[in-house]
Amino acid sequence: RSYSSSETEGQLLNSFGQYFGDSLGRKIKTMPLIEETVMPEDSLFTLPVVIIGNGPSGICLSYLLSGYRPYLSPEAIHPNPVLHTKLEAARHLSIVDQDLEYLSEGLEGRSSNPVAVLFDTLLHPDADFGYDYPPVLHWKLEQHHYIPHLVLGKGPPGGAWHSMEGSMLTISFGDWMELPGLTFKEWAATKRRNRKSDRVMPEEIAHYYKHYVKVMGLQKNFRDNVYITSVSRLYRGEDDEDRSQLNENISTQPLEMEDGQKSLIKRNWEVRGYQRATDGSHVPFCLFAENVALATGTFDSPGRLQVEGEDFPFVLHSMSDFGAAISKGKLRGKADPVLVVGAGLTAADAVLCAYNNNIPVIHVFRRRVTDTSLIFKQLPKKLYPEYHKVYHMMCTQSHTADSHLHSAYTSFPEHNVLSFKPEMKCVLQSASGLKKIVKFSVALVLIGSHPNLFFLKDQGHSIGHHSNQPITCKGNPIEIDPYTYECTKEANLFALGPLVGDNFVRFLKGGALGIARCLAIRQKKKHDLIERGDGGGDGVP
Fold first, then answer.
1. Same domain as 308, residue 455
2. Which of 53, 294, 310, 468 could make an SS bond with 58 (beta carbons 3.0 to 4.6 A apart)?
3. Is 321 helix (H, G, I), strand (E, B) or coil?
4. Domain that holds residue 519
5. Both 344 and 416 in a single domain?
6. For the chain, what is the radius of gyration of the CA atoms?
7. Which GO terms describe its molecular function (predicted)?
8. Which residues pair with 420 in a beta bridge?
9. Which parts of 21-136 fold into alpha helices (H)?
10. One domain, residues 219 and 338
11. 287 in Cβ contact with 34 (< 8 Å)
12. What is the pLDDT of residues 452-500, one digit of tens each?
């Protein structure tokens, strides 16, 4: 079911009434929509939560903020006896209402974030040991726990999954890509898809996420085609009201009650951007939020070599551009090989794509083929035969000083790219310092990607584990409290997913759990203050 703008506004208003309670909910004048043009000048709305990013991280957080609560299933027995004892003792409570640090204690898994490991073992018990146990949780919709929020994304719900190359299988099993409350198998059955493998296509995952938002009734919280230009903190005090002045068309007054009482939501953040309309025009907007959650993922900016000639048009940085070049026939009949730089799975995908289209490949990477940190070393051969085919070629068809290029594939282990030349040549250097020039038809640099947090102060460099350095999912994730996912260096700013080092969908759901619990506790404190009549002033800390 789709929602009209007015219907969505009304539903969010009703939810806002639930958030504050009936007594204060009736006093709210109105809530503007996202566009500046419809924001009333006398009561600019402040949202409890704005989520930036509508991929699986943002979707899962919206699911929990919408009031869905996980409980231990009546017949469930978790294979970890210590954890099961803890769960059994608090069976009457949802997981959101329990001490996550206590539940996480002693658990181990493939995430460095303890709540991520906890939630994963509740949804996929002992999955890393090869077991396919069902989740020990069941879900209830408790609408009184709804916290009003908006999820802002550039495209449809699903985020970057809608733009991934559709010809490759995902690295994870389909069941590991699913979100709470709707198994991937259930969705696949409704689509009558013949699943020959437990691994699935990215386009299937994208459609699943989009359907998930609809079937769970989350559409009212989502805004598509939205581009964020700035997220800035508002410092509001008695002597510095003017610091947060907006343009003359937008009021800076907080949400007013009919009796003049100020909102119980602190206006901590100003979120600006634009929404792309159907006619291509840009409609600017400005929102205020008490809390902002960053769920943007890491696919915004492809990694670059930072070498001479990298900006030439024949040097590509994405699989989608490479796929487009192949589909348009631009590489058909080319005598020179494709140059692929990188030793990750995306680079392996490019090798396979070229190989399957009878395009010769030169594969350049810095590591030794025996390096234990190579991703291929972590993948079972039976489950990932195509990637082990690439790895086998990397090992057995490498270039040596006295050898020629192989006809279909040649690897250059322990080599760096020094430069790209305008005549479509590349200068390589080996670990020993020996230089070699190779000719190519198109170069594809696939060395990972990084988040683009340009909309934050200093591009977010101040909130990582290493201050004043760019945020990266591996080397410098955002530093968070391990149980609330709130940034340790910026209050009321949360982050989850790849931004905090959780690259797999299996583990990013833990971030949603941690944030939902933190905000639920703060919501309860607000309600307690309301009941006592202490809700005046500039907001609740």
1. no
2. 53
3. helix
4. 47-224+451-530
5. yes
6. 26
7. growth factor activity
8. 426
9. 22-25, 56-65, 81-89, 100-104, 114-123
10. no
11. yes
12. 899 999 999 999 999 888 898 878 999 999 999 999 999 999 999 999 9
